[in-house]
Each structure stands twice: as structure tokens, then as C-alpha cells.
Amino acid sequence: MSAPLRPEIVVDLAAVRHNLRAVAAEVGPDVQVMAVVKADAYGHGMVEVARAAREAGAAWVGVATGPEALALRAAGDTGRLACWLLMPHEDLAPLVAADVDVTASSLEGLEQVHRAVDATGRSARLQLKIDTGLSRSGCRPEDWPALVEHARAGEEAGRWRVTGLWSHLAASEEPEHPANAHQARVFAEALEVADAAGLRPEVRHLANSAGALLHPDLRHDLVRVGLATYGLDPAPGVTSMRLPHLDLRPAMTVVAPLVLVKQVPAGEHVSYNWRWAATAPTTLGLVPLGYGDGLPRAAAGAAEVEVGGHRRPLRGTVCMDQVVVELGPAGTDVAAGVGDAVRLIGPAPAPSAQEWAEACGTISYEIVTRLGGRLERRHVDSEAEHGAEHETGPQTALAGAPREEHA
Ligand SMILES: *Cc1c(COP(=O)(O)O)cnc(C)c1O
Q: Which of 74, 115, 245, 272 would bridge 317 by S-S if both were Cys, CB 3.0 to 4.6 A apart?
């Protein structure tokens, strides 16, 4: 990959497809895969990633919000599509009309779906969420029997079909965490209550990426795979030990041209507030992106970048538009000049999103999701027939997996 004209995010859709196939192979043929593409696919581009996910065989795509789901429909996605973060006064009619699975966690949520059914004259696809211990969205277990009963009554009246029953894990990346067993138990009880009430959902689901990979007993009918789709390890240190064969490939590369290279003497200070000074004569390079593009300011003093195959440290404070890299002390062959590519994040030898996360005291989810701002995003397909840098046009229609009723 040569140096770009401007800083950009390059996303390899072949890596996305590969990662989803790797997860599908891991969970086996009896478990469906939902590619989670909320928050612009964790910074990777929602429409393009969803299309790649369908190509890789993902039966489901999941997003958080209604507008995200409608944007996917507008882009041509016709497969199973779920969204789960509804606003209290949101009109769900467009979602029901677009055959999107909506989730209710309360009787108020059911009322909202009732109104959308009235408005559209269509039966909705409704999922119910139980709070098994995350205490975020989801129905409290003590309120679950009533929610299930009302949902069943609505189903019998032809208002909707209850397509899914689900919950979300609190600590799946920590396999021994007591939350896992607790949530598994609460979820199993909730499924029994629903079954006794006569609900026969298409899918029951609990697991995110780490749940899918590390907890075979929590996979149920469907796993909701976000982070692993992007080739990032949802449980650093654990996944590689338990699943050494699993080969996830980072889909994102952040690359920029060096815009300036200069020698400075020992004692010269770098960037705002003089937080770093050269201890010997050295060569500095200017990288034209900063926290205005989502680069964490907390990375100052800890993160590295890759230039010409070598790791080089960032020096001084990360600014809004720029950051400084130390290319090498005097006497070393810095082998880098203006216009050369600086890779900030990407597959080895570039630093991983996980390394940036550790440098910043956060998780790789946040590192990739916050990248954007002025960065241009370019989708490539390293497995396309005509060379490695085949570009996918932004207008390309989104191929949807054929809709199928799940037995
Ligand atoms: C974001 C999200 C996921 C995906 O989680 P990962 O850890 O990225 O796999 C799954 N389910 C729900 C409800 C989510 O909000």
C-alpha cells in the first residue's frame, strides 16, 4: 500500500468476509451469525461492511438504532436485520414497514410497536429482551412473565410475530467471571417462561463476539458478532490461548503521508507544553492527523506508528490536526522522507488497535470506532480478481441474503 495523498482509513472487505467465515466455522452450522455493524461498523463503514457480511453468508445484520437500520434498507439490504435501541417517542412504523426486527424490553415498548402496526397495517417482527444481569436495556426478570404474556397475546391477535428472545452479556471476555454463569441461568429461566407461555421464536441469542468464541454453551441459535467481524480480538490474551487456530485479520488500516521531516538538536522540545524533549540530535516527522480525526490524545508518549517497516514512537502531545513521530536519532538511517506512508493502525507490522488501546487505557472497540472526522475512508478488496487494490464504489448496491423462514 503506497502513501495516500491525505490521511485515510483503508478497510479491506476481504478481511471482513474472512473473519465472519472464521467465526461461522467456529460456532458451527447450527448457529446463525449476526454481523453487528452499529456505529458505522465500528468505524469501518456500515453499508460496505454489511454488504461484505451478507456475501460471507451472515444471515443476520444487527445495528443499535432505527436510523441505522433504515439506512441499510435504503442501501438495498433485504436480509434479516435487527435493531435494539429505540427512542421513547420514536415512530416505529418505518421499521415495521421495512421488515426490521425491533426489540421491546417493556410494556411501553409493546405499545410503541402496537402503534406502528396500526399505522402500517402490517404485522411486526418483534424481539423481546430480558435483562439477565447487565442492568442496561432489557426487561427485569420479575417483569418478564407479564411482558411475555402480552407479547403472546399480541401474537395471537396477529399484531406481530415474536421472532427472537435475547439478552446481552456483561463480561464474556473474562471466561471465569461469575456474571457468565449467572446470566446463562437467568436467560435459561426466561426462555422457559416464554416457552410455557407459548412463544416459539426463530432465534434465541445471548452471545457477542467473546461469548460466541469462548462460551460454546451460550451460543444458542444465533451469535451477535461485532468486534471479531473487524478482525480484532474480543478477549486479548484469552482467545489466542484457547483458539490458537482462529485467524482473525484486522480489516482497518489508518495511513497518512509524512508531511515534513526535519532534524533537531538535543534539547529541542516537541509539541504543546513541551512534554517531550530530544535527548540527542534526532529526526522528527510530522503526521497530519490528530484528535480531530479521532486519534486519542491519551496516546501521547505511549503509542507507536510504522514507517518503512519500522516501529517509531510518537513524541509529545497529540494535537487536533497533527502529531509528531521520532524517525530516529542522528546517525541512524531513518529511511523515510516527505510523502512516505505512516501506518498508525493496521495489520502487522503496523501497531494493532489493541496496542493503541493499551497505550491509552481503553479497549480496541473505542480506538477504531472513534476514528473518522476528516479521514477519508476507502474500501478495498484484497481478494478481488483484478489485483489487491480493487476499489468498491460507494454506490454499489447492497446484496441482501435471501430471506428465509428459520424453522
Ligand atoms: C455491540 C453489540 C454486540 C457486539 O458486541 P461485540 O463484543 O463487539 O461482539 C452484540 N450485541 C449487542 C446487543 C450489542 O450492542
A: 272
Does ligand 1 lie within 6 Å of residue 168's CB atom? yes
Q: Which residues contact 392 (CB under 8 A, 6 or more apart)?
A: 13, 48, 379, 380, 381
Using pLDDT thresholds of 50, 70 and 90, give the confidence band for residue 333: confident
**For 106-177, where are the alpha helices, taking DSSP H only?**
107-120, 144-156
Between CA 188 and CA 216, with CA 136 as vertex, the angle to 5 degrees is 40
pLDDT for residue 335:
79
pLDDT > 70 fraction of the chain, expressed in percent and rounded: 94
Q: How far apart are CA 241 and CA 257, in angstroms?
A: 37
Note the pLDDT tens digit of each residue in 36-80: 999 999 999 999 999 999 999 999 999 999 999 999 999 999 999
Q: What is the Cα–Cα distance from 157 to 10, expressed in whole angstroms? A: 49
**Residue 407, pLDDT score:** 34
User: With 70 as the cut, is the pLDDT of residue 391 above it?
Assistant: no
Candidate CATH numbers 3.20.20.10, 3.40.640.10, 3.40.50.2300, 3.40.50.300; the one for domain 13-229: 3.20.20.10
Q: How many angstroms does the Cα of residue 227 sit away from the middle of ligand 1?
A: 8
Residue 346 and residue 401: Cα distance in Å, rounded? Answer: 29
> What distance in angstroms lies between residue 226's CA and the mean position of ligand 1's atoms?
5
Cell of 100: 426490521
Q: Pick left, alpha or beta for residue 236 (phi over 0 → left; psi -120 to 50 → alpha; otherwise beta).
A: beta
Which atom of ligand 1 lies at the shortest distance from residue 209's CA? 9
β-pair type (323-329, 310-315): antiparallel
Sequence spans of domains, the chain: 13-229, 258-371
CATH, domain range 258-371: 2.40.37.10
Phi, psi for residue 204 in degrees, rounded to 5? -115, 130
Cβ neighbour number for residue 340 with a 10 Å cutoff: 18
d(CA 58, CA 42): 17
Nearest partner of 98 among 85, 116, 86, 114, judged by Cα: 116
Which residues are catalytically annotated? 38, 272
Burial class (CB within 10 angstroms; exposed 0-12, middle 13-18, buried 19+) of 230: buried
225 CA closest ligand 1 atom index:
9
